[in-house]
Amino acid sequence: MTETSLAVGVAIELRDIVKRFPGVIANDGVNLTVRTGSIHAIVGENGAGKSTLMKTLYGAHRPDEGTVTVNGVEHEFRSPREAIAAGIGMVFQHFQLADNLTVWENIVLGDEPGSWWALGSRTARAKIRELGKRYGLEINPDSLVGDLGVGQKQRVEILKVLYRGAKIIILDEPTAVLVPQEVDELFNSLAELTAGGATAIFISHKLDEVLEHADAITVIRAGKTVGEIDDPNTVNAHQLSEMMIGSELPSPETRESTVTTDVALEVTGLHISLDGIERLRDVSFKIHRGEVVGIAGVEGNGQAELVQAILGLEHLDAGRVTLFGDDITKASTGARRHAGIGYIPEDRQKDGMILSFSLWENCALGHQWQEPYGDGRWIDKDGALGRTEEIIREFDVRTPGSTVPALTLSGGNQQKLIVGREMTSNPKVLVASHPTRGIDVGAQAAIWEVIRQARRAGLGVLLISADLEELIGLSDTLHVMFDGRINATLNPKEATPALLGTYMTGANGADRD
Amino acid sequence: MTDANETTTLDRLVKRFGPNVIAPALAGIIAIAVSALTLLLGGHNPIRAFEEIAKVLWSADSFVLISNRAAWYYVAGVSVAIGFKMGLFNIGADGQYRLAALFAAYFGAKADLPPILHIPYVILIAVVVGALWASIAGILKVTRGVNEVISTIMLNYIATGLTAWLLGNYFRYKTGTLLSATKSMPVSARLPNLDRIFEAVGITMSDTVALQGFIVIAILVGIGYYILLFRSRFGFDLRATGLNPMAARSSGINPKRMVLITITLSGAVAGLIGMGALLSDPQHFKYSDQFPLSLGFTGLSLALLGRNHPVGIALAGIVWAAIERGTQPLTQKGFPQEIGKIMQGAFLLTAVIVFEVMQRRAAREAVREAAAKASIQLEGAPA
Prior knowledge:
The complex is a heterodimer. Chain A is an alpha/beta fold. In chain A, 33% of the residues lie in helices and 25% in strands. Chain A has 3 domains: 10-245, Rossmann fold (3-Layer(aba) Sandwich); 250-340 and 427-513, P-loop containing nucleotide triphosphate hydrolases (Rossmann fold, 3-Layer(aba) Sandwich), CATH 3.40.50; 349-426, no CATH class. Chain A contains 17 helices and 20 strands. A 6-stranded mixed beta sheet of chain A has the order 6-7-8-3-9-10, with helices on both faces. In chain A, strands 16-17-18-13-19-20 form a 6-stranded mixed beta sheet, sandwiched between helices. In chain A, strands 2-1-4-5 form a 4-stranded antiparallel beta sheet, covered by helices on one side. In chain A, α14 (411-424) runs parallel beside α15. By secondary structure, chain B is mainly α. Chain B has a domain at 69-317: ABC transporter involved in vitamin B12 uptake, BtuC, CATH 1.10.3470. In chain B, 72% of the residues lie in helices and 0% in strands. Chain B is built from 16 helices and no strands. Chain B has helices at residues 9-17, 19-41, 46-57, 60-84, 93-110, 115-144, 148-169, 195-200, 214-230, 233-243, 245-250, 255-273, 275-280, 295-305, 310-327, 339-380. The longest helix of chain B is centred in the C-terminal third of the chain and has 42 residues, at 339-380. Chains A and B meet through α10 and α11 of A and α10, α11 and α16 of B.
């Protein structure tokens, strides 16, 4: 289908979409043709413009140029409401569900059946059951959403858009939060959906699953469509990755082992309970100098609490933390950071920086008591500016200067600044929580390289990541956390994403140390 | 680069002078308009009223009186701003300064010291009492989680009762009059006035007014505040905690310690507020039933108006004092006296709103500019 013949069977056609943001052209002539009843994958690296494109399609913003055609009719969506009216629904990566409501309540929220004095709960339940049966998305409408697992929550999200009559469903990185087994279930549901006449579009950068499950693939690079593949059997992962990045895929793999026998950080028997729930149960491990210890696990299985325990941000019910043999269990966060624990927080804007502070002030944050940022009593602005310039240069932070507020930087550049500030302060142990989340491949490779170099120089690293390839590639030792415990300990050389996935869902692994 | 936003005259003015000049100017214009409208509605001639105000303000006496009063207000504003900078609302500056002034007045008048020691001695008592009183709210907050707004308001009431009781029963100097007052400060404890500066440049002041020596203390407080805030590590920690407590905590700043120190420091500066009247104002020189009230609350307004900035609070204090001075004689001319309060209120409200609006515009503009500059750099770099 080379001509723009609006033949029957084309659900969506985007032509020459251009979307500019301040300083960035996110989409620069994207074309997309999606057949009705197909599972269509959109691949591209982080920052390629996939999400921007999907937001255009979903009416979250309007493109500066180009046309959006749905089922042969040209549309100009001014809001998501209009997109829903045209039969397009979006399932976001981060679920937008109320934990304290039931499944059916969540689904009808904002589109409640019945009259103003009575909620049509029976109608709603019946409709949800029927949708579930038809598309293989069965779920009990009366379960509390807070009790559901991630995979089931995603089902609720999909049902939510189906309930609103969507025939075209967009899923933004739907597999990012799922373990491999749940991924298979998701694609089974999508297959049923499309068999029933619906169309599914999903965004991903995991090439294997794209090749396995998609009926067609569109590759986006730097805001442009660089490949439209109607038959995935004609390409392999290697070709796809070349299209995606225009070159070889960088690998996080570390070559030679630099693990020493000196213990840098040791935690023993950590227990944390919050609101009566045990978040951390008897967690013990060691990080040696020159070792990267990776923590795999589905989010919310105690990783955040582990980080807080090491940094002294959360009260320990039991356990011990030692740094180079010194007991720091009772030490304050400040004392621990002073002693050489570097920290790259999971949520950079919440925990890692102060958005209205200038870059140099943000670089000083967490190191304000030490050279070159000051002497403990006074802040040395010149020293801080000098170091900030250095970080900007060495870590390729794209900014007009070191005195602009941090909120003017893009997320990736903010992350590079944080990594730079931690690494230039010569930490002895680095706690890195999702250090490459949401940043482009170039910056990702740079951060991997920084971690590798520091590891060679004797740094002990605790790496927490949702990117299994990153974990397997960078770690010297891998622990899998499940339900607050270390569920399995693996040698990364023997680990595969599938194996990790098994442990991440709670299967018990005999510790092989 | 397409620029969808058309630039208005206001945008251009803001760009030229910055929001720090335009926002208060705009607020001033609006405040005058609101007051004029109020006068008009009340059947008064606003132009004549403003003529009167201008006439009163345009004199050396007014200059002195405004400076004197602004100095008191300034110290109050800084005291509150220290807390504000960290997101703490020290509503209790009012009780802190009154209690501090009472103790300083009583023990200061009892002491017999040379001026070089006497003045610092009195000031030290005030600072310590203010700090201790404020630290009660700090301790309640860090140990029991009591919101400092609630506790400081309640501590104000307690301070009112406590000062009345102490003054009536223990600290009162028996003079035979009905006035409850401490003994007047001895000369050795009084701050010298600054009239000699005027004499040096050949201006003779009327005998009824004198430029208070407390102004020097206010200026020192301002300089100290600036250095603390923008040069010291403590100030860095304080600003960081105020803007993002989570990030501050992750960076190793101890939030509880910061809360305690900041409230105490705020109280210490609050202790100085009353020193203007006690050590520098011939109408007082003692703590009595007539001691100036509510300065702590004025401080709240001024910290807000001056954006917690050492210079901003000073300007706000001057405007505040000038409005008070300018509208004071209006009653004698048949105008309602409340017009001063109306002007102050309108000024405060509009300034806060206009500032917020401009701040947001400026932030958006900064993001846009930074992105534009960064993308220029990007063009040379590989994608």
